[in-house]
Write a structure and sequence with these properties.
Chain lengths: 238, 339
């Protein structure tokens, strides 16, 4: 079975003067997370779309689904975890408890605040997950990326040709993901905030698919202004 | 939902725009699988339209020839995965007499509003028709076939019954598809193709005869004629047809010209020629085109021969490549839409 999880677990830092988690802010005529959810609803192969959400906001999230999507048995709202991987693990355990797990089951995880994800990216993740235990969505680094280990001077400038920027979705074989996570020490769990990184550290092959520059993360007021500026409302019938 | 519209912003410049669209019960979400470039698209892309027209219409997504698969239908009428052809003509009213493609109020994809160069397309429920038993890369030619079907309906209605010899002027895509369909639907008629390009005429082996327009036997006549030339060549083609056609024959005009065309109306009058104007197509014509492919499956191989280039599209760069290639190919350029 193919599952998806929309990661909306964090209440995050304040975006400007709002207390509302950023995934609930309006982009065009709908909250950001609804735009994201709509793209996943296009992929008919996905059996369940799980939304990992802060406990206090679960009722709110359910209201949003009811208002903008309507009744849809594909969508489940669950409580997120203490951190990103905790939210993913909650979904994995939810799947195991409610639907059982096989070796082939996969989960496509995606940031709620990347509403410009499109059908092609989701489908490419699903296809690539048949070949790899984990799949990342990446784009080539357009800028030179520099490293400074002391925050004062540059320690290295890696060759840009080998560098990419990680986006989401990230897709995993669920059993592999849970096993890998469980094999980490508590200290490792604190450092390895990126689920794909867990696989890389454990010498497992992580495939990748091409993301899009526009699959951006809306995390600041500037991002939100930009996202609203590029979004056109309605068709251009004239 | 947010949808990517790949629009021509100015000649040779395609960009992506994000449009928030509403999925209502009267819409069906379709993922395009194949898109085919038409001469009209190429003229927009190359900037070969009146600057005033370009200023008014751009930015706009090009392409009005497409097939896709249904992703979602709120009413459940079309199952996910159903292969459908997309109808570009979009009427806003019905009329008992006038066909939908001639209603002045109808909108047309990639002319009055965005064409099919989009990540997904929200289609009006009545603007898609399922097809089966045809490869998608061939089914994308259904729009082109539907244009011929529209012209043939007109031809059947208004041309006299003597149809021993039918001439088709033009050795491009429209000429090819029209002569192929005529050959099947009028098996007793002799189909003669007239063109300007020897190499392209070689593709028309199914026709009963082909001639260069500069080398037509003096005693040759046709009962009816189809003009599939358009552009600057339309004038000389139509006048040649008027000269060659037998009295009271009909000439089906199918080629689009940007310029005014001067024709020998004296001879039109003297011969009692019927000029039939044809443009675009509607639902019934697409339906007829699908039925044609089901009835004459052997024509599928013939249609494959006019796919000159197939470009797999993953990026805007690939779209640009397809349009650039198309300006130098004999027949059609199609895009496998994987974006």
């Amino acid at each position: 079975m193919i599952y998806a999880e929309i990661l909306a677990g964090g209440v995050g830092k304040r975006m400007g003067n709002t207390d509302m988690p950023k995934q609930f802010l309006m982009l065009g005529n709908k909250p950001i997370i609804i735009h994201t959810l709509e793209q996943f609803l296009l992929a008919n192969e996905i059996a369940k779309i799980i939304i990992g959400c802060p406990k206090d906001w679960m009722g709110y999230m359910n209201d949003l689904v009811a208002k903008y999507i309507g009744k849809d048995d594909h969508i489940v709202v669950i409580e997120g975890g203490a951190d990103r991987n905790g939210t993913i693990m909650n979904a994995c355990h939810y799947i195991e408890d409610n639907y059982g797990l096989t070796d082939k089951d996969i989960i496509i995880t995606h940031d709620a605040v990347r509403p410009f994800v499109d059908y092609r990216i989701i489908e490419d993740n699903i296809k690539a997950a048949k070949k790899f235990d984990a799949v990342d969505t990446i784009i080539p680094a357009a800028d030179t990326i520099v490293e400074s280990t002391d925050g004062k001077v540059l320690s290295s400038i890696p060759v840009r040709d080998y560098l990419y920027l990680g986006q989401t979705p990230q897709t995993f074989k669920i059993k592999e993901l849970v096993e890998t996570y469980d094999s980490l020490t508590d200290d490792e769990k604190k450092i390895l905030t990126d689920a794909c990184k867990m696989f890389v550290i454990k010498d497992k092959k992580v495939g990748f698919i091409r993301g899009e520059e526009y699959n951006m993360k809306v995390t600041t007021m500037h991002d939100l202004k930009l996202a609203n500026a590029i979004l056109e409302v309605g068709l251009n019938h004239d | 939902m947010i949808n990517c519209h790949y629009r021509l912003h100015s000649p040779k410049r395609i960009g992506v725009d994000f449009v928030e669209e509403e999925l209502t019960d009267d819409k069906v979400i379709v993922k395009p699988l194949y898109l085919s470039i038409c001469a009209a698209d190429e003229r927009y892309y190359q900037g070969k339209r009146d600057p005033k027209v370009l200023a008014k219409k751009l930015p706009m997504s090009l392409i009005h020839e497409a097939v896709g698969e249904v992703l979602k239908d709120p009413k459940g009428e079309f199952k996910p995965g159903t292969k459908v052809v997309l109808i570009p003509n979009t009427p806003v009213e019905t009329d008992d007499i006038v066909k939908e493609n001639y209603l002045r109020s109808s909108k047309f994809r990639a002319s009055g509003f965005d064409g099919f160069m989009q990540s997904i397309v929200l289609m009006d429920r009545g603007r898609i028709i399922p097809y089966e038993n045809v490869e998608d890369r061939v089914a994308v030619l259904l729009e082109l076939m539907s244009v011929t079907m529209n012209a043939l309906e007109h031809f059947d209605k208004y041309s006299h019954l003597k149809k021993q010899t039918i001439g088709v002027w033009g050795c491009g895509n429209v000429g090819y598809v029209t002569s192929l369909i005529l050959k099947k639907l009028y098996p007793n008629a002799k189909i003669i193709v007239f063109g300007t390009n020897t190499n392209k005429l070689h593709y028309f082996q199914f026709a009963d005869a082909t001639y260069l327009v500069s080398d037509i036997p003096e005693d040759l006549t046709v009962d009816h004629a189809f003009e599939c030339v358009g552009g600057r060549g339309a004038e000389s083609a139509i006048n040649q047809m008027i000269d060659i056609i037998n009295p009271q024959g009909s000439i089906a005009l199918m080629g689009v010209s940007e310029e005014l065309v001067g024709i020998n109306t004296r001879m039109v009058l003297e011969k009692g020629i019927t000029l039939l104007g044809n443009s675009r197509s509607g639902y019934e014509d697409f339906d007829a085109a699908i039925k044609f492919l089901n009835n004459f499956p052997e024509t599928i191989d013939y249609l494959k021969r006019i796919i000159s280039e197939e470009v797999v599209v993953h990026s805007i760069g690939d779209m640009t490549k397809a349009f650039e290639l198309d300006s130098n190919v004999d027949f059609k350029t199609i895009m496998k839409w994987e974006i």
